[in-house]
Amino acid sequence: MNKRTVPLAVIALSVAALVTLPVAPAQAQTDSAASTPKQVRKAERTAARAKKNAELKQLEQNGYNPAGEQTNYPQNIQNAQSKINAQKAGKPAPASAP
Hints:
This protein is mostly helical.
């Protein structure tokens, strides 16, 4: 191997490694260090609420009506959930039970 190609290859690999390193913004580092336990709990509650709202919206889009008649409550929410599960699995939705 040529003596010049080895150092150039090492330099090229070093530069490539440095370019691919993730760099976090300085603001993100200071925000996470300055977060109080109260702020962390609030953020967790907000995230949990958003997740539950998204799940409810999916159920409603698949036939569940929380304000509707609840005589068939367990069955109608289970039907909506099975439709969601089928969509996630890429299968056709099962027929609804009466």
